[in-house]
Amino acid sequence: MSFLVGKYKDKVFKKSDSYLFIKYCEVEDNGVMKIKLHQLINHAQTETVHYLLAKYLLANINDINHLSINKVVEDTLISKTSVLKFCNYFGYDSWKQFCNNLQAEYLMEQQRLASLKMNAKLMFIKDSLKDYLKLKDEFFYEVEKTITYSKIKKFARELYKADKVFIIGEICEISLFYELQDILSYNQKKVILPRYLNKKDFDSQINNIDQETLIIVCDGLHCYQDFIYYSSINSGYDHSSLFRNNKKIFIGQKSNIQSDDLITFELPFSFNEYFIRLAITDFIYKTITYYLYRYCDDNK
Asked: Which domains occur in the chain, in start order?
C-alpha cells in the first residue's frame, strides 16, 4: 500500500505532508487490528459474540472490503446491533470504517509478508545462505558491542528499584516481555502491558501511571523521538508530556537526546526485522538471568 497524499480516517494530509501521511498509515496499520482479532480468539470464550466474529473475520479477511454487514449477519446469525457493538469495541463508529481500515492493514501486511518471503528464498539459496549468515554474524557482533554486561546490570537494577513498570512500544515486540512480566511478579512488581483491545481500557491504564512508574519503551526499528512522535499521532496522547516526569528506558535505534531521566539501550540497525527481535529477546533474557541471580535470592 503506497500513499503520497490523501485522507486517512479523519485526518487530511496535504501534498507537502506526504512523508508524514505514509508514516501515519504505517504506524496506524502495523498489524494492530489483526493482532486484536487473534487475541480474542486466544482468550475470549468460544461462545461469545467477540470470539465468533473474530474467527469469521479472520477467515474472510482476503475479501473483507467487499463484506457487507448484512452478509455477516446472514452467515453468523449475529444481530446487526451486536456487529456494530463489535466495531465500537475496536474504536470504530461504523462497519464500513472498520472494514476499510482492516483491509488497509491487510494490504500492508501482505507487502510485509512478500518482503519476508523474498528474504527467505534468498536465504535458502546455497550461495546466498553464506551471505545471510555473514550478515547475521556481523549484526550480532555489533549487538555484543552495544548491549554490554554493564548495561544488562543497569537495566536489571532499574527494574528492581521500580514498584510499577509500564511497557509500551511496537506491538509485536511487547510480546517479548511476557516472561519478564512473570519474573517481576515474583518480587511483587506490578507490570502493565497496554491493552490494545479497546480505547477505554488503554485510557484507564494511562490514568494509572504515576511519577514513580518506570516506563519501558521498545521499538527496535526506530529512535526514541520517532516513537514518541508517531505514537502520539496514533493514540491521541502526547507521550512526551505524558511520560515527562517518569524514569524511562528505551530499547531501539540510536537517539540523539540527552535527558537525566532517559536510559537508552541502542541496537544496531538491520533491514531484517527478525535480527532486531532476536537481539531484543537476547537482551531481555540476559537481563532476566541477571535479575534472578542478583535480586531473587530467597535468603536476601
From this structure: 31-112 (1.10.10), 140-295 (3.40.50.10490)
Q: How many CB atoms lie within 10 A of CB 153?
A: 15
Positive or negative: CA dihedral 193, 196, 200, 202: positive
Nearest to 2 by CA among 25, 31, 34: 25
Location of C-alpha cell 536510559: 263
DSSP string, the chain: ---SSEEETTEEE-GGGHHHHHHHHHHHTSSHHHHHHHHHHHHS-TTSHHHHHHHHHHHTGGGGGG--HHHHHHHH---HHHHHHHHHHTT-SSHHHHHHHHHHHHHHHHHHHHHHHHHHHHHTSHHHHHHHHHHHHHHHHHHHHHS-HHHHHHHHHHHHH-SEEEEEE-HHHHGGGHHHHHHHHTTT-EEE---TT-HHHHHHHHHT--TTPEEEEEETTS-HHHHHHHHHHHHSS-HHHHTTTS-EEEEES------TTEEEEE----S-HHHHHHHHHHHHHHHHHHHHHHH--TT-
**96-144 pLDDT, tens per residue?**
989 998 998 888 888 888 888 887 777 777 677 788 888 899 999 999 9
User: Residue 235: which of 196, 292, 264, 272 has the closest Cα?
Assistant: 196
Q: Residue 217 has which C-alpha cell?
A: 519503551
- Stated pTM of the model: 0.72
Q: Tell me how crowded residue 289 is: count the other CB atoms within 10 A of its CB.
A: 13
Pairing of strands 6-8, 11-13: antiparallel
Burial 54-68 (b: 16+ CB within 10 A, else e): bbbbeeebeebeebe
